[in-house]
Amino acid sequence: MASTFFGLTIASSGLTTYQAALNTTGNNIANVHTKGYSRQQTIRHASEAIRANNKYGMVGSGVTTDSVMQIRDQYYDLKYWYNQAKVGEYDTKYYYAQQIENYFIDDKTQKGFSTIFDEMYAALEEVQKSPANPTVRNQFISSAESLAEYFNSVSEGMTKIQSDANEEIRNKVQQINSISQEISVLNKQINVIEIAGGYANELRDQRASLVDDLSKIVPVDIKETNIVNSNDSDMYTGATNYKIEINGQVLVDGNNYNQLEVIARENKINQTDIEGLYDVYWVNGDKINFNTTAMNGEIKALFDTRDGNDADNFSGKVSSIKGNIVYLAGCNMTSDLTMSMAETGTIKIGSKEYEYTGFTNNGDGTYRFSLNTNLTSDEIAKAIGTPAQIGESIDYMGIPYYMSQLNFFVRNYTKTFNEIHSSGEDINGNQAGDFFTAKDSVLGTEMNLNASEITSTSNSYYKMTAGNITVRDALLNDPTLMSTATDVANGVDATDIVDKLMTLKTDKSVISFRGGTSEDFLQYILSDIAVDTQRAKTFSTNYTNISKAVINQRISVSGVDEDEEAMDLIKFQNAYNLSSKVVQVLTEMYDRLILQTGV
Length: 599
What we know:
secreted, structural molecule activity, Flagellar hook-associated protein 1, FlgK, four-stranded antiparallel β-sheet, cilium
């Protein structure tokens, strides 16, 4: 039968248990506003009963506290982490879309393309009225230089955005490495505690908070599995293996983690790319491809912004190969006005990449690329008829897309303008030259853009970009060199060249940009960026709202409710007081038994 003093054991178990419950409740209240904290709860069960050897059989032995557990629903965690990657992607895209939009000023707040373009043609109208007046000529030349400077400044702005996105990619990779290292350390600490029989609630909260941060940068797949004893599979070890994967590749595996690194590209993909754009690799050398539908998060948005070409990178098909010369047909960039690839770089033929040292555009959709190595007979046989491309097809309007649009407009407009201008004579009766030109970025000298053959090195309009367009120095210094008539012998008031130049603004049969006139250029670009900005804003808002809903669901499960904890305080206090009362009653009973009973 049970000991006479067994009641004290029962009462003591109640005191101990409800002291633990009160401590846990106090800890919850102390962390009511702590970010990432999950509500904790003591898990209790009735202690094992003992045989009393009486007709009533068993006697209860009190209460036991099994553990202090955090209250957390993994379903809501996984849902939150999945959604955070979307929030991170569209928040970042929205931010950079706004940055791009700021450079394409719509003239409502300050002077932009439309105002400068209108002012240039207003000045050209004055030339039309007084073609021999050097002051009027000079005003037009200055306004044309302002147009060139506008494109220079926008190009510089696009370059800065690309540079900023590139640097942020490096920062995000450093964040990923730092977080993965911290999580691996926490995994070890958690297992040390839980193998000994405890529950590492606070450490688990820290780990979940780190995953919250990580999931906004890259999409994560989380798996936590119990570690079994190889000698006894039914034995509970208390240890778990916590694994984080990115697109099927392991980032963290228990106590171990894999590092990422950024490596600057040796070659540019697009003509206007900055030097040293980063690609991300695992330390084992495998490259991470962020241009997949499975990828999202902040780093995906940064790559799309930095490299997005609206799925319009250079492409063609291999028709033949002779030594190190690859012949391509059916290429999508047929003229020097649309070419956007770098002068030298890497071309992918089939599934293999080769470095090219130059190319020739034959003007009919066919190209010749000079590789820095001869292909073997097996490589040639495999390559014939296969697709060839430079860079990846990225279905997003990022910096390369907007730069190609700027360059196309600049080349198309200036080439037509120069052809008309150079067909006339200056005021002295000499054949006029080009009005617009491009400056060599290294030498700073003006280029003669009338090369008969379009190659990677010849001075065709491929060499002109929004970043280097300018008015010829000779015209800036001497406005009499400007052409206003085909033949000045017809008189100083002849303006047939000016008349033709005037049509470039509104006559799309002379020059067009995406089916519209040249003055519509800004509206087309603004419509592009407005679509991207609005789409990013809409998705950012939607996924943020989903995130808030999931957070509310998480809080409903894991959050600390002040009213609920206050009720628990009273409940556990009463239980503790009652256990104390039991001790008091038993004390009085034992006093009567020991001191007042007997012979």
